[in-house]
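Hi all, long-time lurker, first post. I run a small reading group and we've been trying to get comfortable going from sequence to structure in the token notation. Rather than ask abstract questions, I figured I'd post a concrete chain and ask someone more experienced to write out its structure so we can walk through it together at our next meeting. Sequence below, copied exactly:
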Amino acid sequence: MELVNSLILVRPEGVYVPVVTSGIDRSRLFEDMNVLFSGGYCLKGLDYPLFLDVLYRPEKLEARQNTPVRLADELVNLSPERMALYRDVKISGEGEEAEYFFEPVYLESPEGAGSAPVPAQLDFDEFVAMMWRRGVRFGLQETEIREIIQRGLVQRAVVAKMLLPTESRDAQVVEVSEKMHQDRSPLILADGRTDMRRAKNHFPHVSSKEILLRKIPLQVGDYGYRVTGRPVPPETPKDLDLHQLAGTGTCVLDNEQGAFIQAIMDGFVTIQPGTHAIQISATLENRTGVNIRNTGDLQLHVKDFKEHGEVQEGRVIEGQNMHFQSSVYGTVISRDGDLHLSKGLSGGEAKALKGHITLKGNAVSSLIEAGSGTVTLGYAEDCAIIAEHVVIERAVNCDILCNRLQAQRVEGCRVVGHQMDLQVLSSNRYHESIVFILLPDTDAIDGQIAQERHQLQETETLLEQQLENLLQANSDPVMEKYIKLRDALQAGQVTLSEGELKAMEQLNRKFFTVLSPRFALQEKRRHQLDAIERLKADRLACNTEEYCNIEHIEEHIRVDILRSNRGLSDFFPQLGRREIKAVLMQLSTRGGAHYQADQGSYHWAYRSVWGAGT
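-- Answer (accepted) --
Happy to help. Here is the structure in token form:
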């Protein structure tokens, strides 16, 4: 056995057989080929595809050491006569391909000079060795070359082609959690019906410790080779850093199984624009807007929601503590918490059932309702505004229902409220400004109190007559003392000891039959007194402090009085824009006015002096 660097030449039965082992050094094996082919040797019975893999891609062999790989049947020395049969090859460009002209070949006659040459045939194994000597060391087209040689064709052919490098693969991330996916299919209701206005899950929600993304490492492509054997490196793939994608609420988990992005809190998944970082937060944010294409209607069960895009006309959003950064054209309803609208509200509705509404932009042709809260806005036109407290800079052609109103300028509006502070009140060419002060309706309750007192007086008279008749019909002095003592006890004028109470119980049994009609009248009087006290308490509750202050009056305005003990619900059982407008139009045409003027100012306050002892 002889060793040429890494090529092992095994000599069984006197024949050298080239053999290599896996795990060899490619550069050493390449040097061995140079030594052999340049020295005039040829590998007979060469397995050409295996030869290329061993020579150029030894890593494709098994990794075990000392595993023999047989390249050819034997190693032979080429004679000069055989070497002369092979012509030069044309290598194009930078080694993209090589051309060879196949033509008939001849050997000298063994009979010597002057004899006709003997036709000969090329050999593929020799062709490999001779092409190596001429610089073609990769990519020989074995099938085509063997066919041309076997058939003895005369032609110019491309005998070698370069191998392009395989494509590299950039590092990438893939989703691991199925909860990362949105489900925009229509929502299926509990009764089996399909709600085409709402999606099943537009905002993905994940749990703490949940694996969200997995990194697939970059993969470098295989080298290509020119026909000269010069390697062509593959394109360098791009790597990525998971730490740049791990935003708030996530972390990078790196272990033997790979690199991952993991959630460290329960919350909603959002993708940050620009950086594309994964962020998890308890506050839900949406940037695509609310429309039929992206989201449909939304029913949210989160504590906070922020929308950066527009809310399309006809869309409905229900939630709590909601913030809208762009214009709203649909309906937004906060079941609990406040509503904040940074831009305009146009043709839509904003309702806070248990909170306040703040609108920094303009409101046009909309319904704004915060029944138990405060509505604060700058400019409103052709709107219906309902709230406990309304603070507005300028209102034009609006209908306002509230307990308290603070306004800088009101033009062509109809206002109903208890306490109103208006800097400027003016009518315009479209509407007259009318202020309705809502006062308690005390006439009915005063009449009830008077009626109950009259009935009480009648009962008192009957009791006096009954007592007189009883004393005339019964001369028992004990009964007269008993009646007076019992009346004093009921009035709280006297108290009895334990022994006296036992004696009183005996008298109760003794005179019960005779005095039962009087007892019934006394019970009736007690009920009448209780009813009067309840009515008096209700009347005292009407002692409110309604007022109306108008600092500057422009054009013609009116101030009128509305009376109700049930507040706005007496006049406005429904709080839609059209219903409110219809009721106010009817009230404004009933005639008469508490006050009207074209200029000046107006200051009026309601004070009730009704109280205890009345």
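A couple of things your group might point at:
The two ends are 134 Å apart (CA to CA).
The chain has a mean pLDDT of 83.
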